[in-house]
Amino acid sequence: MENPGTVFTQISDFLDYLGSDFSSVISKLSKDGLDLSPKFPFLCSRHFANQIKNSSNPEALLREVLPLTVERKNIPGFVDDPVGDLPAGKSDCVIQKYDRRALIVSTATCGVRCRFCFRKNYPFQNIPDVASEVSNWLDTHSDVWEVILSGGDPLTLSPGAFRDLVESIAAHPSVTTLRIHTRLPVMRPDLVIQHFELLRELPTRFNCVLVSHVNHADELDEDSAALFAHLKICGWTLLNQSVLLKGINDSPDKLTTLCRKLFEQGVLPYYLHQLDHANGVAHFEVPDERARELIAEIRTKLPGYLVPKLVREIAGEKSKTPV
Protein backbone atom coordinates (compact mmCIF):
# COMPACT_ATOMS: atom_id res chain seq x y z
CA MET A 1 0.00 0.00 0.00
CA GLU A 2 1.38 3.40 -0.95
CA ASN A 3 2.22 6.13 1.50
CA PRO A 4 -0.25 9.03 1.77
CA GLY A 5 -0.43 10.32 -1.78
CA THR A 6 0.06 13.75 -3.18
CA VAL A 7 -3.17 15.47 -4.14
CA PHE A 8 -3.06 17.50 -7.33
CA THR A 9 -5.01 20.76 -7.10
CA GLN A 10 -3.42 22.38 -10.15
CA ILE A 11 -4.27 20.95 -13.56
CA SER A 12 -0.81 21.86 -14.89
CA ASP A 13 0.91 19.80 -12.16
CA PHE A 14 -1.39 16.86 -12.91
CA LEU A 15 -0.69 17.00 -16.65
CA ASP A 16 3.06 17.34 -16.02
CA TYR A 17 2.92 14.22 -13.86
CA LEU A 18 1.16 12.24 -16.57
CA GLY A 19 3.88 13.27 -19.01
CA SER A 20 4.19 13.64 -22.75
CA ASP A 21 2.96 10.09 -23.44
CA PHE A 22 -0.56 11.34 -22.68
CA SER A 23 -0.47 14.52 -24.75
CA SER A 24 -2.41 13.03 -27.66
CA VAL A 25 -5.15 11.64 -25.38
CA ILE A 26 -5.46 14.95 -23.56
CA SER A 27 -5.57 16.86 -26.86
CA LYS A 28 -8.40 14.61 -28.04
CA LEU A 29 -10.39 15.09 -24.84
CA SER A 30 -9.84 18.84 -24.70
CA LYS A 31 -10.53 19.63 -28.37
CA ASP A 32 -13.50 21.72 -27.21
CA GLY A 33 -11.43 23.39 -24.50
CA LEU A 34 -9.64 22.47 -21.29
CA ASP A 35 -10.98 24.59 -18.42
CA LEU A 36 -7.97 25.75 -16.39
CA SER A 37 -10.15 27.75 -13.96
CA PRO A 38 -13.22 25.58 -13.44
CA LYS A 39 -16.06 26.71 -11.18
CA PHE A 40 -15.97 23.23 -9.61
CA PRO A 41 -12.28 23.11 -8.63
CA PHE A 42 -9.95 20.41 -9.90
CA LEU A 43 -8.76 17.73 -7.47
CA CYS A 44 -7.12 14.38 -8.22
CA SER A 45 -4.91 12.09 -6.16
CA ARG A 46 -1.54 10.80 -7.25
CA HIS A 47 -2.98 7.31 -6.75
CA PHE A 48 -5.65 7.89 -9.39
CA ALA A 49 -3.11 9.56 -11.68
CA ASN A 50 -1.13 6.33 -11.47
CA GLN A 51 -4.29 4.38 -12.32
CA ILE A 52 -4.61 6.51 -15.43
CA LYS A 53 -0.99 5.83 -16.35
CA ASN A 54 -1.51 2.07 -15.96
CA SER A 55 -4.92 1.94 -17.64
CA SER A 56 -5.62 0.12 -20.87
CA ASN A 57 -8.19 2.87 -21.51
CA PRO A 58 -6.68 6.07 -20.02
CA GLU A 59 -9.09 8.29 -21.93
CA ALA A 60 -12.02 6.87 -19.94
CA LEU A 61 -10.39 7.54 -16.57
CA LEU A 62 -9.21 10.99 -17.62
CA ARG A 63 -12.77 11.95 -18.53
CA GLU A 64 -13.76 11.43 -14.91
CA VAL A 65 -11.41 14.11 -13.55
CA LEU A 66 -10.37 16.52 -16.34
CA PRO A 67 -12.33 19.82 -16.37
CA LEU A 68 -13.57 20.89 -19.81
CA THR A 69 -15.15 24.16 -20.89
CA VAL A 70 -18.29 22.27 -21.93
CA GLU A 71 -19.12 22.17 -18.21
CA ARG A 72 -19.89 25.90 -18.44
CA LYS A 73 -22.78 25.40 -20.87
CA ASN A 74 -26.29 26.01 -19.56
CA ILE A 75 -28.45 23.09 -20.68
CA PRO A 76 -32.24 23.14 -20.14
CA GLY A 77 -33.28 20.62 -17.48
CA PHE A 78 -29.91 20.60 -15.75
CA VAL A 79 -30.05 22.31 -12.35
CA ASP A 80 -27.99 22.91 -9.21
CA ASP A 81 -29.90 20.45 -6.98
CA PRO A 82 -31.08 17.67 -9.31
CA VAL A 83 -31.97 15.10 -6.62
CA GLY A 84 -33.73 17.42 -4.18
CA ASP A 85 -31.15 17.32 -1.40
CA LEU A 86 -31.92 20.84 -0.16
CA PRO A 87 -35.70 20.39 0.36
CA ALA A 88 -34.96 17.10 2.16
CA GLY A 89 -32.51 18.75 4.57
CA LYS A 90 -33.47 18.29 8.21
CA SER A 91 -30.47 20.09 9.70
CA ASP A 92 -27.19 21.49 8.44
CA CYS A 93 -25.88 17.96 7.86
CA VAL A 94 -28.90 15.59 7.84
CA ILE A 95 -30.86 14.71 4.71
CA GLN A 96 -33.89 12.45 5.01
CA LYS A 97 -35.69 11.31 1.87
CA TYR A 98 -36.53 7.70 2.69
CA ASP A 99 -38.59 6.06 5.41
CA ARG A 100 -36.73 5.68 8.75
CA ARG A 101 -33.32 6.20 7.12
CA ALA A 102 -31.12 9.26 7.26
CA LEU A 103 -28.10 10.45 5.26
CA ILE A 104 -25.37 12.48 6.91
CA VAL A 105 -23.43 15.01 4.82
CA SER A 106 -20.43 14.45 7.08
CA THR A 107 -17.88 16.64 5.31
CA ALA A 108 -17.35 18.80 2.24
CA THR A 109 -14.02 17.09 1.53
CA CYS A 110 -13.55 14.42 -1.16
CA GLY A 111 -10.63 12.36 -2.39
CA VAL A 112 -11.33 13.55 -5.94
CA ARG A 113 -13.65 15.95 -7.71
CA CYS A 114 -15.49 13.90 -10.28
CA ARG A 115 -16.60 16.06 -13.18
CA PHE A 116 -20.02 14.36 -13.23
CA CYS A 117 -20.69 14.89 -9.50
CA PHE A 118 -24.37 15.44 -8.70
CA ARG A 119 -23.36 17.59 -5.70
CA LYS A 120 -20.91 19.78 -7.62
CA ASN A 121 -23.17 22.79 -6.94
CA TYR A 122 -24.22 21.76 -3.41
CA PRO A 123 -23.68 24.49 -0.77
CA PHE A 124 -21.36 22.38 1.37
CA GLN A 125 -20.28 23.55 4.79
CA ASN A 126 -18.00 21.72 7.17
CA ILE A 127 -19.90 21.52 10.46
CA PRO A 128 -17.49 22.21 13.36
CA ASP A 129 -19.06 19.45 15.51
CA VAL A 130 -20.96 17.22 13.13
CA ALA A 131 -21.09 14.42 15.75
CA SER A 132 -23.07 16.56 18.20
CA GLU A 133 -25.45 17.78 15.53
CA VAL A 134 -26.15 14.24 14.36
CA SER A 135 -26.63 13.03 17.93
CA ASN A 136 -29.04 15.85 18.72
CA TRP A 137 -31.09 15.08 15.61
CA LEU A 138 -31.22 11.35 16.37
CA ASP A 139 -32.37 12.13 19.91
CA THR A 140 -35.71 13.22 18.45
CA HIS A 141 -35.88 10.60 15.66
CA SER A 142 -35.86 7.26 17.43
CA ASP A 143 -37.54 5.58 14.44
CA VAL A 144 -34.37 5.80 12.29
CA TRP A 145 -32.79 2.35 11.86
CA GLU A 146 -30.18 3.07 9.16
CA VAL A 147 -27.71 5.94 9.00
CA ILE A 148 -25.78 6.58 5.78
CA LEU A 149 -22.50 8.47 5.96
CA SER A 150 -21.90 10.49 2.82
CA GLY A 151 -20.48 13.87 1.89
CA GLY A 152 -18.01 14.69 0.45
CA ASP A 153 -16.42 11.47 1.57
CA PRO A 154 -16.81 10.44 5.22
CA LEU A 155 -13.48 8.58 5.23
CA THR A 156 -11.62 11.83 4.59
CA LEU A 157 -12.45 12.79 8.19
CA SER A 158 -9.61 12.50 10.68
CA PRO A 159 -9.65 9.27 12.73
CA GLY A 160 -10.77 11.22 15.81
CA ALA A 161 -13.59 13.05 14.04
CA PHE A 162 -14.76 9.87 12.31
CA ARG A 163 -14.80 7.94 15.60
CA ASP A 164 -16.72 10.76 17.32
CA LEU A 165 -19.32 10.69 14.55
CA VAL A 166 -19.73 6.92 14.73
CA GLU A 167 -19.96 6.96 18.52
CA SER A 168 -22.65 9.65 18.36
CA ILE A 169 -24.68 7.32 16.15
CA ALA A 170 -23.96 4.21 18.23
CA ALA A 171 -25.40 5.98 21.29
CA HIS A 172 -28.85 5.59 19.69
CA PRO A 173 -30.03 1.95 19.95
CA SER A 174 -32.61 2.35 17.18
CA VAL A 175 -29.78 2.60 14.62
CA THR A 176 -28.87 -0.97 13.75
CA THR A 177 -27.35 -0.44 10.28
CA LEU A 178 -24.44 1.83 9.40
CA ARG A 179 -23.74 2.45 5.73
CA ILE A 180 -20.71 4.29 4.34
CA HIS A 181 -20.58 5.68 0.81
CA THR A 182 -17.00 6.22 -0.33
CA ARG A 183 -14.80 6.68 -3.38
CA LEU A 184 -11.56 6.35 -1.41
CA PRO A 185 -10.70 2.66 -2.01
CA VAL A 186 -9.85 3.63 -5.61
CA MET A 187 -8.82 7.24 -4.97
CA ARG A 188 -7.01 7.46 -1.63
CA PRO A 189 -6.56 3.97 -0.13
CA ASP A 190 -4.10 5.45 2.36
CA LEU A 191 -6.94 7.42 3.96
CA VAL A 192 -9.03 4.26 4.37
CA ILE A 193 -6.16 2.55 6.19
CA GLN A 194 -6.10 5.25 8.88
CA HIS A 195 -9.58 4.12 9.96
CA PHE A 196 -8.89 0.38 10.02
CA GLU A 197 -8.91 0.03 13.81
CA LEU A 198 -12.46 1.35 13.98
CA LEU A 199 -13.64 -0.28 10.76
CA ARG A 200 -12.59 -3.69 12.13
CA GLU A 201 -14.64 -3.11 15.27
CA LEU A 202 -17.85 -1.75 13.79
CA PRO A 203 -19.42 -5.02 12.54
CA THR A 204 -19.65 -6.14 16.18
CA ARG A 205 -21.87 -3.10 16.85
CA PHE A 206 -23.88 -2.56 13.66
CA ASN A 207 -24.90 -4.28 10.49
CA CYS A 208 -22.21 -2.63 8.36
CA VAL A 209 -22.46 -1.85 4.65
CA LEU A 210 -19.78 -0.15 2.56
CA VAL A 211 -20.89 1.14 -0.84
CA SER A 212 -17.94 1.94 -3.06
CA HIS A 213 -18.18 4.09 -6.18
CA VAL A 214 -16.26 2.56 -9.07
CA ASN A 215 -17.15 3.29 -12.70
CA HIS A 216 -14.45 1.49 -14.68
CA ALA A 217 -12.54 -1.74 -14.10
CA ASP A 218 -9.17 0.02 -14.41
CA GLU A 219 -9.92 1.96 -11.21
CA LEU A 220 -9.52 -1.31 -9.30
CA ASP A 221 -6.04 -2.57 -8.37
CA GLU A 222 -4.12 -4.52 -5.74
CA ASP A 223 -4.69 -1.78 -3.17
CA SER A 224 -8.47 -1.82 -3.55
CA ALA A 225 -8.44 -5.64 -3.51
CA ALA A 226 -6.53 -5.64 -0.21
CA LEU A 227 -8.89 -3.10 1.37
CA PHE A 228 -12.02 -4.94 0.29
CA ALA A 229 -10.65 -8.32 1.39
CA HIS A 230 -9.86 -6.96 4.85
CA LEU A 231 -13.29 -5.36 5.26
CA LYS A 232 -15.06 -8.49 4.09
CA ILE A 233 -13.18 -10.65 6.61
CA CYS A 234 -14.21 -8.21 9.34
CA GLY A 235 -17.89 -8.64 8.46
CA TRP A 236 -18.72 -5.75 6.14
CA THR A 237 -21.24 -6.18 3.32
CA LEU A 238 -19.55 -4.74 0.21
CA LEU A 239 -21.59 -3.19 -2.60
CA ASN A 240 -20.77 -0.90 -5.49
CA GLN A 241 -22.70 1.79 -7.29
CA SER A 242 -21.61 3.18 -10.63
CA VAL A 243 -22.85 6.02 -12.80
CA LEU A 244 -23.48 5.31 -16.47
CA LEU A 245 -21.23 7.79 -18.26
CA LYS A 246 -20.77 8.53 -21.95
CA GLY A 247 -17.22 7.80 -23.07
CA ILE A 248 -16.34 6.07 -19.79
CA ASN A 249 -18.38 2.91 -19.30
CA ASP A 250 -21.18 3.02 -21.88
CA SER A 251 -20.47 -0.31 -23.55
CA PRO A 252 -21.48 -3.86 -22.62
CA ASP A 253 -17.85 -5.02 -22.54
CA LYS A 254 -16.79 -2.26 -20.15
CA LEU A 255 -19.72 -2.85 -17.84
CA THR A 256 -19.28 -6.63 -17.90
CA THR A 257 -15.57 -6.33 -17.14
CA LEU A 258 -16.31 -3.92 -14.29
CA CYS A 259 -18.91 -6.19 -12.69
CA ARG A 260 -16.67 -9.24 -12.91
CA LYS A 261 -13.63 -7.43 -11.51
CA LEU A 262 -15.69 -6.05 -8.63
CA PHE A 263 -16.83 -9.58 -7.82
CA GLU A 264 -13.24 -10.84 -7.95
CA GLN A 265 -12.48 -8.25 -5.25
CA GLY A 266 -15.44 -9.36 -3.12
CA VAL A 267 -17.84 -6.54 -4.08
CA LEU A 268 -21.33 -6.97 -5.53
CA PRO A 269 -22.60 -4.54 -8.18
CA TYR A 270 -25.60 -2.75 -6.66
CA TYR A 271 -26.78 0.22 -8.71
CA LEU A 272 -26.01 1.57 -12.15
CA HIS A 273 -27.27 5.15 -11.89
CA GLN A 274 -28.55 7.16 -14.79
CA LEU A 275 -26.87 10.56 -14.70
CA ASP A 276 -28.31 13.07 -12.26
CA HIS A 277 -29.05 16.31 -14.14
CA ALA A 278 -26.67 18.65 -12.31
CA ASN A 279 -25.49 21.79 -14.04
CA GLY A 280 -22.28 21.12 -15.94
CA VAL A 281 -22.61 17.35 -16.53
CA ALA A 282 -24.86 17.05 -19.61
CA HIS A 283 -22.01 15.87 -21.86
CA PHE A 284 -21.85 12.61 -19.85
CA GLU A 285 -25.47 11.62 -20.45
CA VAL A 286 -26.42 8.27 -22.00
CA PRO A 287 -30.03 8.13 -23.27
CA ASP A 288 -32.43 5.87 -21.36
CA GLU A 289 -33.08 3.68 -24.40
CA ARG A 290 -29.34 2.98 -24.78
CA ALA A 291 -29.02 2.39 -21.03
CA ARG A 292 -31.74 -0.27 -21.14
CA GLU A 293 -30.07 -1.88 -24.16
CA LEU A 294 -26.78 -2.07 -22.24
CA ILE A 295 -28.40 -3.75 -19.24
CA ALA A 296 -30.14 -6.24 -21.55
CA GLU A 297 -26.81 -7.05 -23.19
CA ILE A 298 -24.89 -7.57 -19.96
CA ARG A 299 -27.70 -9.84 -18.67
CA THR A 300 -26.72 -12.24 -21.44
CA LYS A 301 -23.08 -12.19 -20.30
CA LEU A 302 -23.36 -12.29 -16.50
CA PRO A 303 -25.24 -14.23 -13.82
CA GLY A 304 -28.15 -12.28 -12.40
CA TYR A 305 -26.43 -11.49 -9.11
CA LEU A 306 -23.77 -9.49 -10.99
CA VAL A 307 -26.20 -7.33 -12.97
CA PRO A 308 -26.69 -3.95 -11.24
CA LYS A 309 -30.12 -2.33 -11.02
CA LEU A 310 -30.50 0.49 -13.54
CA VAL A 311 -32.04 3.39 -11.62
CA ARG A 312 -32.32 7.14 -11.41
CA GLU A 313 -33.04 9.37 -8.47
CA ILE A 314 -36.00 11.70 -8.89
CA ALA A 315 -36.37 14.61 -6.49
CA GLY A 316 -39.26 14.06 -4.08
CA GLU A 317 -39.65 10.34 -4.76
CA LYS A 318 -39.49 7.94 -1.80
CA SER A 319 -37.13 5.49 -3.47
CA LYS A 320 -34.82 5.12 -6.45
CA THR A 321 -36.80 4.73 -9.68
CA PRO A 322 -36.07 1.79 -12.03
CA VAL A 323 -35.30 2.90 -15.57
CATH homology superfamily of the largest domain: Aldolase class I
User: What fraction, in percent, of the residue positions are helical?
Assistant: 25-40%
Q: Proportion of β residues?
A: 5-15%
State the helix count.
Answer: 12
Question: What's the CATH C level of the largest domain?
Answer: Alpha Beta
Largest sheet: 9 strands, mixed
Silhouette: globular
Total number of beta strands: 11
- Computed Rg: 19 Å
Please give the order of strands in the largest beta sheet. 3-4-5-6-7-8-9-10-11
Question: What is the CATH topology assignment of the largest domain?
Answer: TIM Barrel
Which ranges are low-confidence, i.e. pLDDT below 50, for 5 or more consecutive residues?
none
Mean pLDDT across residues: 95
Task: Tell me the domain tally.
Answer: 2
Architecture per CATH nomenclature, i.e. the level-2 architecture of the largest domain: Alpha-Beta Barrel
Q: What is the terminal-to-terminal distance?
A: 39 Å
Content-based structural category: alpha/beta
Order of helices and strands: EHHEHHEEHEHEHHHEHEHEHEE
Short summary:
This protein is an alpha/beta fold and 323 residues long.
